[in-house]
Amino acid sequence: MKIPRLEAVPGTMLPMEEYAADFLEIFHDVDGVIWKLERAQSFDEGTDPSWNAMREGDWRRSLELLDEARAAIAADLPAKGELRRVRVVETPLTAYLQWELHLLALRMRLGERGRVLDAREVAAIEMDGPLPELVVFPGRRMYHVQYEQGGACRGARRIDDDEAVRTWGSIVSSLYDRGEDLLAYVDKRVMPLAPPRIGVSAR
Fold first, then answer.
1. β-strand 153-159 against 82-89: which pairing, if any?
2. In terms of Cα–Cα distance, which of 137, 142, 169, 167 is closest to 156?
3. Domain interval for residue 106
4. Given this model, what pLDDT does residue 203 score?
5. Which of the residues 22, 41, 83, 122 has an alpha carbon 20 to 30 A from that of 114?
6. Is position 201 within any domain?
7. Is residue 90 within 8 Å of 41, Cβ to Cβ?
8. Sign of the dihedral defined by the CA atoms of residues 85, 91, 96, 102, in that order
9. Contact 85, 77 (CB under 8 A)
10. Going along 39-132, which residue ranges are E strands?
11. Can you tell me the mean pLDDT for 19-33?
């Protein structure tokens, strides 16, 4: 598969607050599939209580806080459409990814759909650099999500080019078809791991 260079597609850079508002304008109105592609192995989740409990070394409390956040997580899912996520993973897992996969498993139990794809499976299409972080609303628009060097989200490029939206929707869909069910992956690969430690990859 040959993928186009997304950087060459015109778009409008939206700072974080504008991105969030623009995103929510259509997120709960879309009646269909919303695609999300995640490639980076670590992000900064800011003030998220569960994330920060993990960073402080309290893994048990981190998981408890995830469970306590069920209602808020459920409200973060689209009201009409179905969110399908492709999570590219490198092994050994980073502490962040070990934590996030628990979060994504919970999101699946609440109605999201997710699959995991080993980074080795996408190596052939990453010759020009890693896959982008994307949210695609087919037939509408997509967001090329941007991050600071430390992993904090700084906003997104909104892209309205019809051909680019169709192309990238098709790319993410094909990657999804190749992936492993996220819940099965978590049960098999993540649940047996020791609690994560910042700066130490899980083995």
1. unpaired
2. 142
3. 11-190
4. 60
5. 22
6. no
7. yes
8. positive
9. no
10. 82-89, 113-118
11. 95
Counting the structural domains of the chain, the total is: 1
Give, to the nearest 10 degrees, the angle between helix 59-68 and helix 95-109: 30
Q: Do the domain assignments include residue 5?
A: no
Decide if 151 contacts 76 (C-beta within 8 A). no
Tokens 């800011």 belong to residue:
46
pLDDT digits (tens, 9 = 90+) for 112-153: 999 999 999 999 999 888 999 999 998 889 999 999 999 999
Residue 1 within a domain? no
118: CATH:
3.30.870.10
At 201 the pLDDT is 61
How far, CA to CA in Å, does 107 sit from each of 71, 78, 164, 203? 11, 12, 28, 24
Angle (CA) 40-107-48 rounded to 5° is 65
What percent of the chain has a predicted confidence (pLDDT) above 70? 97
**Distance in angstroms (rounded) separating the CA atoms of residues 35 and 137:** 7
State both tokens at 46. Answer: 């800011």
pLDDT tens for residues 173-196? 999 999 999 999 999 999 999 999
User: Looking at this protein, which amino acid is placed at residue 116?
Assistant: V
